[in-house]
Amino acid sequence: MGLLSTVREDLRNARSHDPAARGDLENALVYSGLHAIWSYRLAHRLWLAPSLRGPARVLSQLTRLLTGIEIHPGATIGRRFFIDHGMGVVIGETTEIGDDVMLYHGVTLGGRSLEHGKRHPTIGNRVVVGAGAKILGPLTIGDDSAVGANAVVTHDVPADSIATGIPAVVRRRTEKQREQLVDPTTYVDPAMYI
């Protein structure tokens, strides 16, 4: 996918995920989540060349300074990723994020150890993570799941589930909640999971 196609897809995605979105030009100019994602994509390309890892880290830290969103350039992020509001989001180096994932502000996808290797979460496709949630360690959040606001998740969450609380308690989605997820571009209020 080319650069212009990716930017257009990201702008469409922002419009579909944020009822406050008023237009592509305004979103491109003021949405810190979009700025962080676009900068991450450039930094990630640099990161893939070992000799450019230093500049990749510098770019990611400059982006953090400007947006309040820290995405390590070593993370792997899929298509149509959206960060709403964004301030305080942290995404660690070995994090893997699928397609159509939405994070709210204050989310941490972090590690729990100083060991080398995989130490950050794997987030499946079509996952929504509510404001302030902490997902810690090399665990997996299954496809079509949701993590409620301020939840602390330290164990795997199966597909089609909801995790809420501290520590997070996991339950299967109800039929009503499944109906609300028919279209992954439909706005979903994470407060419905509390």
UniProtKB/TrEMBL annotation:
Q: Where are the transmembrane segments?
A: none
Q: What class of enzyme is it?
A: transferase
Q: Does the keyword Protein transport apply?
A: no
EC number of this enzyme? 2.3.1.30
Which reaction is recorded as catalysed by this protein?
L-serine + acetyl-CoA = O-acetyl-L-serine + CoA
Which InterPro entries does this chain map to?
Answer: Hexapep, Hexapep_transf_CS, LbH_SAT, Ser_AcTrfase_N_sf, Ser_O-AcTrfase, Serine_acetyltransferase, Trimer_LpxA-like_sf
Q: Which domain of life is it from?
A: Bacteria
Enumerate the GO terms in the molecular function aspect: serine O-acetyltransferase activity
Record pathway: Amino-acid biosynthesis; L-cysteine biosynthesis; L-cysteine from L-serine: step 1/2
Q: Which family is this sequence assigned to?
A: Belongs to the transferase hexapeptide repeat family.
Under which name does UniProt file this protein? Serine acetyltransferase
Q: Which organism is it from?
A: Mycolicibacterium sphagni
Q: Which gene encodes it?
A: cysE
